[in-house]
Design goal:
With 287 residues, the protein is α/β, with parallel strands linked by helices. It contains 11 helices and 8 strands. The radius of gyration is 21 Å and the shape is elongated.
Length: 287
């Protein structure tokens, strides 16, 4: 497979968002990085430290309902041993989100004491919610706030500006637009972000993306691919695997040629909605 996926995605609004995040982080007591449990490595923005300085940081592994539970547990331990606070959430159903406020109060207990020692008991704690596009930031905030405070939807780039959401309990959350970074140093990072839907599909070559995805899945979860597409897996070539799946489904264009674009779209959709099961594409580095 020679085709390269060249994914460069840093539109103008992200330049603005980045500036806005840096300016507002000064007002915040803590920063939450919402990451995608299916790609915990690729969904972490390497620029976060330089954007927000050394604020206390909480990692929210979201989409755990779509991720492989065994691998999620490994990532949890990995992040914990790296000194992060970690939560595991499914912001769609709300599972795992109810401990957020207590977790934040725990993380900021010294600060709370500092304020209360000075009689500033009513002082708001401000928490910035950061993450890649479409990861579930706004959904998470809505779950914690128990109302539709922030717009959430099934495509990247929905939240455009900042929005403060007051929880009415002394904590205020700041929703931010999904942010990527100007260059993916590692080609796999761009690919994984595209597979999971963090990068808008329109800027990508669908067939190449599909070929890369099926090859990746065959390497990591061969049984899931076999069960879903009923193809033989004795090939290392993504386009060949994709062709086999297209043939099996009878996806043809006029002239009898296989419709690989259609098969790619189906594969991407089925992967994203979880029809292949709970799959995680990245494992933590070994100690
Ligand atoms: N299965 C599943 N779906 C989720 C989860 N969290 C969010 N979603 C869905 O993912 C889509 C995107 O959610 P949003 O909350 O809008 O994501 P966002 O990070 O605010 O996106 P932008 O504002 O575009 O950056 C919505 O369709 C949500 O229902 C989750 O934990 N599991
Ligand atoms: Mg949003």
């Amino acid at each position: 497979m020679n085709e390269q996926l060249n994914i460069q995605w840093f539109p103008g609004h992200m330049v603005k968002a980045r500036r806005m995040i840096t300016e507002n982080s000064r007002l915040c007591d803590a920063v939450c990085e919402v990451i995608d449990a299916r790609i915990p490595y690729s969904s972490r923005n390497p620029e976060v430290p330089q954007l927000v300085g050394d604020k206390p940081r909480l990692i929210i592994m979201n989409r755990v309902d779509q991720a492989d539970p065994t691998v999620t547990a490994k990532w949890r331990e990995y992040f914990k041993s790296a000194g992060f606070y970690v939560m595991e959430t499914d912001a769609k159903s709300g599972k795992g989100t109810s401990s957020f406020q207590n977790t934040i109060r725990g993380i900021l207990k010294d600060k709370i004491k500092y304020y209360s020692d000075r009689g500033q008991t009513g002082r708001l704690l401000r928490v910035m919610i950061l993450g890649i596009p479409n990861v579930g930031k706004s959904s998470f905030i809505n779950r914690v706030a128990k109302r539709r405070a922030a717009e959430a939807s099934d495509r990247p780039g929905v939240t455009r500006g900042k929005q403060w959401i007051n929880l009415g309990s002394g904590i205020e959350m700041m929703d931010t637009p999904g942010l990527l970074w100007p260059k993916f140093e590692d080609k796999l990072v761009g690919e994984h972000l595209a597979f999971t839907g963090a990068v808008r599909d329109e800027i990508l070559d669908t067939e190449t993306l599909g070929a890369h995805l099926i090859k990746t899945l065959v390497q990591l979860y061969p049984n899931a691919v076999e069960a879903r597409y009923k193809i033989s897996l004795d090939s290392e070539d993504g386009f060949e695997l994709l062709s086999r799946a297209a043939r099996k489904r009878g996806f043809l264009i006029s002239g009898g040629e296989l419709d690989l674009e259609r098969m790619s779209n189906v594969l991407l959709d089925e992967f994203r909605v979880g029809k292949l099961g709970r799959l995680t594409l990245e494992v933590p580095p070994e100690e």
